[in-house]
Design goal:
alpha/beta; two-stranded antiparallel sheet; about 20% strand; seven-stranded mixed beta sheet; about 240 residues; Rossmann fold; 9 strands
Protein backbone atom coordinates (compact mmCIF):
# COMPACT_ATOMS: atom_id res chain seq x y z
CA UNK A 1 0.00 0.00 0.00
CA UNK A 2 2.87 2.39 0.77
CA UNK A 3 4.15 1.88 -2.79
CA UNK A 4 0.83 3.04 -4.19
CA UNK A 5 0.78 6.08 -1.90
CA UNK A 6 4.21 7.14 -3.12
CA UNK A 7 3.20 7.15 -6.78
CA UNK A 8 2.76 10.67 -8.13
CA UNK A 9 0.39 10.56 -11.08
CA UNK A 10 0.34 13.62 -13.39
CA UNK A 11 -3.10 15.03 -14.17
CA UNK A 12 -2.59 14.40 -17.89
CA UNK A 13 -1.95 10.73 -17.18
CA UNK A 14 -5.02 10.54 -14.95
CA UNK A 15 -7.16 11.89 -17.79
CA UNK A 16 -5.65 9.37 -20.18
CA UNK A 17 -6.21 6.55 -17.68
CA UNK A 18 -9.85 7.54 -17.24
CA UNK A 19 -10.36 7.49 -21.01
CA UNK A 20 -8.59 4.17 -21.57
CA UNK A 21 -10.14 2.28 -18.69
CA UNK A 22 -13.63 3.59 -19.45
CA UNK A 23 -13.13 2.31 -22.99
CA UNK A 24 -11.65 -1.02 -21.80
CA UNK A 25 -13.34 -1.71 -18.44
CA UNK A 26 -12.06 -5.31 -18.38
CA UNK A 27 -8.56 -3.89 -17.96
CA UNK A 28 -9.37 -2.01 -14.74
CA UNK A 29 -7.75 -4.71 -12.52
CA UNK A 30 -4.44 -3.91 -14.23
CA UNK A 31 -4.59 -0.16 -13.53
CA UNK A 32 -1.83 0.09 -10.89
CA UNK A 33 0.44 -2.30 -12.77
CA UNK A 34 0.02 -0.09 -15.84
CA UNK A 35 0.91 3.06 -13.89
CA UNK A 36 4.02 1.40 -12.45
CA UNK A 37 5.12 0.19 -15.89
CA UNK A 38 4.95 3.72 -17.29
CA UNK A 39 7.02 4.99 -14.37
CA UNK A 40 9.64 2.27 -14.89
CA UNK A 41 9.87 3.00 -18.62
CA UNK A 42 10.23 6.73 -17.98
CA UNK A 43 12.98 6.09 -15.44
CA UNK A 44 14.88 4.06 -18.00
CA UNK A 45 14.85 0.83 -16.03
CA UNK A 46 15.49 -2.42 -17.88
CA UNK A 47 11.85 -3.29 -18.44
CA UNK A 48 12.38 -6.93 -19.35
CA UNK A 49 13.61 -7.70 -15.82
CA UNK A 50 10.00 -7.79 -14.67
CA UNK A 51 9.97 -11.24 -16.33
CA UNK A 52 6.74 -11.04 -18.30
CA UNK A 53 5.71 -10.96 -21.96
CA UNK A 54 5.04 -7.54 -23.48
CA UNK A 55 1.48 -8.37 -24.52
CA UNK A 56 -1.89 -6.86 -23.69
CA UNK A 57 -2.69 -7.55 -20.05
CA UNK A 58 -5.59 -9.91 -20.62
CA UNK A 59 -3.66 -11.91 -23.22
CA UNK A 60 -0.75 -12.29 -20.78
CA UNK A 61 -3.13 -13.42 -18.04
CA UNK A 62 -4.68 -16.00 -20.38
CA UNK A 63 -1.22 -17.19 -21.34
CA UNK A 64 -0.15 -17.64 -17.73
CA UNK A 65 -3.11 -19.95 -17.12
CA UNK A 66 -2.39 -21.93 -20.33
CA UNK A 67 1.25 -22.84 -19.73
CA UNK A 68 2.17 -26.22 -18.24
CA UNK A 69 5.58 -27.54 -17.01
CA UNK A 70 5.89 -30.15 -19.79
CA UNK A 71 5.41 -27.67 -22.67
CA UNK A 72 7.84 -26.60 -25.41
CA UNK A 73 7.81 -22.96 -26.49
CA UNK A 74 9.36 -21.12 -29.44
CA UNK A 75 9.53 -17.34 -29.56
CA UNK A 76 10.49 -14.79 -32.19
CA UNK A 77 11.83 -11.84 -30.21
CA UNK A 78 13.38 -12.14 -26.75
CA UNK A 79 13.21 -10.29 -23.44
CA UNK A 80 10.88 -10.52 -20.47
CA UNK A 81 8.91 -13.24 -22.22
CA UNK A 82 12.04 -15.43 -22.37
CA UNK A 83 12.39 -15.44 -18.60
CA UNK A 84 8.61 -15.75 -18.16
CA UNK A 85 8.46 -18.88 -20.31
CA UNK A 86 11.64 -20.43 -18.90
CA UNK A 87 10.21 -20.32 -15.38
CA UNK A 88 7.03 -22.11 -16.45
CA UNK A 89 7.78 -24.66 -19.19
CA UNK A 90 10.19 -27.50 -20.04
CA UNK A 91 11.95 -25.99 -23.07
CA UNK A 92 12.23 -22.54 -24.64
CA UNK A 93 13.78 -21.77 -28.01
CA UNK A 94 14.23 -18.05 -28.58
CA UNK A 95 15.59 -16.32 -31.68
CA UNK A 96 16.83 -12.71 -31.61
CA UNK A 97 18.01 -10.41 -34.43
CA UNK A 98 19.69 -7.63 -32.42
CA UNK A 99 23.25 -8.53 -31.21
CA UNK A 100 23.34 -5.84 -28.51
CA UNK A 101 20.02 -6.93 -27.02
CA UNK A 102 21.07 -10.56 -27.38
CA UNK A 103 24.05 -9.93 -25.09
CA UNK A 104 21.86 -8.25 -22.47
CA UNK A 105 19.34 -11.09 -22.38
CA UNK A 106 22.03 -13.78 -22.52
CA UNK A 107 23.81 -12.24 -19.52
CA UNK A 108 20.55 -12.06 -17.58
CA UNK A 109 19.70 -15.69 -18.30
CA UNK A 110 23.14 -16.63 -16.99
CA UNK A 111 22.74 -14.51 -13.85
CA UNK A 112 19.34 -16.07 -13.15
CA UNK A 113 20.83 -19.55 -13.70
CA UNK A 114 18.25 -20.38 -16.36
CA UNK A 115 19.36 -23.46 -18.29
CA UNK A 116 16.29 -24.53 -20.28
CA UNK A 117 16.56 -21.81 -22.96
CA UNK A 118 18.19 -22.38 -26.34
CA UNK A 119 19.01 -18.80 -27.27
CA UNK A 120 19.89 -18.11 -30.91
CA UNK A 121 21.17 -14.95 -32.61
CA UNK A 122 20.26 -14.51 -36.30
CA UNK A 123 20.96 -11.08 -37.70
CA UNK A 124 19.28 -9.92 -40.94
CA UNK A 125 21.20 -10.11 -44.19
CA UNK A 126 21.35 -7.73 -47.15
CA UNK A 127 18.71 -8.31 -49.80
CA UNK A 128 18.88 -7.53 -53.52
CA UNK A 129 15.72 -5.46 -53.38
CA UNK A 130 13.18 -4.06 -50.97
CA UNK A 131 10.44 -6.55 -50.11
CA UNK A 132 6.75 -6.22 -49.31
CA UNK A 133 6.60 -6.53 -45.51
CA UNK A 134 3.02 -7.83 -45.68
CA UNK A 135 4.01 -10.74 -47.93
CA UNK A 136 5.03 -13.83 -45.89
CA UNK A 137 7.40 -14.96 -48.66
CA UNK A 138 9.35 -11.67 -48.70
CA UNK A 139 11.13 -12.13 -45.34
CA UNK A 140 11.17 -8.37 -44.86
CA UNK A 141 10.34 -6.15 -41.89
CA UNK A 142 8.30 -2.96 -41.95
CA UNK A 143 9.90 -1.38 -38.88
CA UNK A 144 10.21 2.37 -39.60
CA UNK A 145 12.36 1.83 -42.72
CA UNK A 146 15.20 0.63 -40.50
CA UNK A 147 15.40 -2.70 -42.29
CA UNK A 148 14.92 -1.67 -45.92
CA UNK A 149 16.67 -4.10 -48.29
CA UNK A 150 17.29 -6.51 -45.40
CA UNK A 151 16.21 -10.14 -45.33
CA UNK A 152 15.11 -12.05 -42.22
CA UNK A 153 15.02 -15.37 -44.07
CA UNK A 154 17.49 -17.19 -41.81
CA UNK A 155 15.88 -15.63 -38.73
CA UNK A 156 12.41 -16.92 -39.55
CA UNK A 157 13.69 -20.33 -40.66
CA UNK A 158 15.30 -21.20 -37.32
CA UNK A 159 12.07 -22.96 -36.37
CA UNK A 160 12.48 -25.30 -39.37
CA UNK A 161 15.26 -27.08 -37.45
CA UNK A 162 12.56 -28.70 -35.31
CA UNK A 163 10.04 -31.40 -36.25
CA UNK A 164 6.53 -30.55 -37.37
CA UNK A 165 3.97 -30.43 -34.54
CA UNK A 166 6.83 -30.09 -32.02
CA UNK A 167 5.85 -26.96 -30.09
CA UNK A 168 2.96 -26.25 -27.74
CA UNK A 169 3.22 -22.52 -28.32
CA UNK A 170 4.90 -20.10 -30.71
CA UNK A 171 5.07 -16.40 -29.83
CA UNK A 172 5.45 -14.11 -32.85
CA UNK A 173 6.65 -10.79 -31.45
CA UNK A 174 9.82 -10.02 -33.39
CA UNK A 175 10.77 -9.00 -36.92
CA UNK A 176 9.20 -10.06 -40.27
CA UNK A 177 6.15 -11.43 -38.49
CA UNK A 178 4.20 -12.54 -41.59
CA UNK A 179 7.15 -14.76 -42.56
CA UNK A 180 7.43 -16.04 -39.00
CA UNK A 181 3.75 -17.00 -39.05
CA UNK A 182 4.22 -18.89 -42.32
CA UNK A 183 7.02 -21.02 -40.87
CA UNK A 184 5.41 -21.45 -37.45
CA UNK A 185 2.05 -22.75 -38.72
CA UNK A 186 3.17 -26.36 -39.21
CA UNK A 187 5.44 -26.48 -36.15
CA UNK A 188 2.73 -26.45 -33.49
CA UNK A 189 0.83 -29.58 -32.53
CA UNK A 190 -2.94 -29.98 -32.84
CA UNK A 191 -4.60 -27.99 -30.07
CA UNK A 192 -1.51 -25.80 -29.57
CA UNK A 193 -1.36 -22.03 -30.08
CA UNK A 194 0.36 -19.28 -32.02
CA UNK A 195 0.35 -15.83 -30.44
CA UNK A 196 0.61 -12.78 -32.69
CA UNK A 197 1.21 -9.50 -30.89
CA UNK A 198 0.22 -6.14 -32.42
CA UNK A 199 -2.15 -8.11 -34.63
CA UNK A 200 -4.16 -4.97 -35.39
CA UNK A 201 -1.41 -3.83 -37.77
CA UNK A 202 -2.78 -4.07 -41.30
CA UNK A 203 0.42 -5.53 -42.73
CA UNK A 204 -0.18 -8.77 -40.79
CA UNK A 205 -3.60 -9.45 -42.33
CA UNK A 206 -2.38 -11.40 -45.37
CA UNK A 207 -0.40 -13.86 -43.26
CA UNK A 208 -3.34 -14.44 -40.93
CA UNK A 209 -5.62 -15.18 -43.88
CA UNK A 210 -3.17 -17.34 -45.83
CA UNK A 211 -1.52 -19.30 -43.03
CA UNK A 212 -3.94 -19.40 -40.10
CA UNK A 213 -7.35 -19.69 -41.73
CA UNK A 214 -7.98 -23.10 -40.13
CA UNK A 215 -7.15 -21.82 -36.63
CA UNK A 216 -9.67 -20.56 -34.10
CA UNK A 217 -8.78 -17.18 -32.64
CA UNK A 218 -9.24 -15.31 -29.37
CA UNK A 219 -8.69 -11.56 -29.58
CA UNK A 220 -7.52 -9.37 -26.71
CA UNK A 221 -7.69 -5.68 -27.56
CA UNK A 222 -6.83 -3.31 -24.75
CA UNK A 223 -4.10 -2.01 -22.47
CA UNK A 224 -0.61 -3.40 -21.96
CA UNK A 225 2.50 -2.39 -19.98
CA UNK A 226 4.86 0.44 -20.94
CA UNK A 227 2.46 2.03 -23.42
CA UNK A 228 -0.18 4.77 -23.33
CA UNK A 229 -1.79 3.29 -26.45
CA UNK A 230 -4.02 0.25 -26.72
CA UNK A 231 -3.33 -2.61 -29.12
CA UNK A 232 -4.39 -6.14 -29.98
CA UNK A 233 -2.91 -9.55 -29.22
CA UNK A 234 -4.46 -12.58 -30.94
CA UNK A 235 -4.17 -16.15 -29.71
CA UNK A 236 -4.65 -18.64 -32.57
CA UNK A 237 -5.61 -22.18 -31.57
CA UNK A 238 -4.77 -24.96 -34.06
Amino acid sequence: MSLIKNIQIPFKLLRLAFYLFSKYPKDIPFYFDWILSLRDKKNGQNTFLDRRPWLTYRAAKWLDSYLKPQMRVFEYGSGGSTVFFAQRVKQVVSVEHNPQWYQVVERTLYELEISNVEYILKEPEKADREGDCSDPSSYSSGFQNKFDRMSFCEYTKVIDNYPDAYFDLVLVDGRARPSCIMHAAKKVRQGAIIILDNSDRERYNVAQTQCLSNYKSVRFFGIGPYSTESWETIIFVK
